[in-house]
Amino acid sequence: MFLALDFIYMPSQDVDKDLKYYLEVLGAEEVFNINDEGAQVAMVNMGAGPRLLLADHDGPDKAIMIYRVENLNKAKSELSKRGWKKDAELEIPHGPVCTFTATDSALRSTSWCAQKRMNS
């Protein structure tokens, strides 16, 4: 059902400072750095794992794992049969997403299932 852990959303109070650290200290590769309408978003590639998305716009104050699924409606249906509960549905540039929170583990985490747009 899950194709990949696509990327990790990392909230940032200072994207430029955080981006500089990832590039200069950790040796990451910059994928993009966009500052538009008062919001800055940058993505870095750390190697074979999922990319990191640094964002300073209003949003959650913790990291969010973005999982790729082939068909969001099928994934929601299958997960619901297992007792999963969705939080919200929204659109991001990557495509439609459905948020959920893992509450039955020691480490609570918020995750998104995302269905990739055909042209992205």
Description:
By secondary structure, the protein is an alpha+beta fold. It has one domain: 2,3-Dihydroxybiphenyl 1,2-Dioxygenase, domain 1 (Roll). It is 18% helix and 48% strand. The protein has helices at 15-25, 72-81, and strands at residues 2-11, 29-36, 39-45, 51-55, 64-69, 86-92, 95-102, 109-115. The chain has an eight-stranded mixed sheet with strand order 2-3-4-1-5-8-7-6. It is elongated. The model has no long low-confidence stretch (mean pLDDT 82).
Distance between the termini: 20 Å
Largest beta sheet: what is the strand line-up? 2-3-4-1-5-8-7-6
Average pLDDT for all residues: 82
| CATH architecture label name | Roll
* Fold-level CATH name: 2,3-Dihydroxybiphenyl 1,2-Dioxygenase, domain 1
Spans where pLDDT lies below 50 across 5 or more residues: none
Give the count of helical stretches. 2
Name the structural class.
alpha+beta
The ordered H/E elements are EHEEEEHEEE
Global geometry? elongated
